[in-house]
User: What shape does this take?
Amino acid sequence: MKRAFPIEVIASATTGILLCDFSDLHQFFTYMVGGPIFNISLPRAAPQVAKCCYRQYPELKSIRLDTMKPKDVPAAVAALKAQFPNPLEMEPC
Assistant: This one.
């Protein structure tokens, strides 16, 4: 069953750069892996979740935030919302 998530949550999961509330990111990971996940396990699950996201939306691979500074987060989120449908419907891995 698909569930909608904001693009900033999905981008946080695929890039490793936090653009949303951590609780929203944790909820996304819980949904994507199919059950509860400890915070300490998020980095281990991140590659699998990113692959699953890229399989559903290959265009997510184009998101590049590695040179972004913290003050640029609001502008980056606005740009993502303009570039991608928001929210995106996701299926769990």
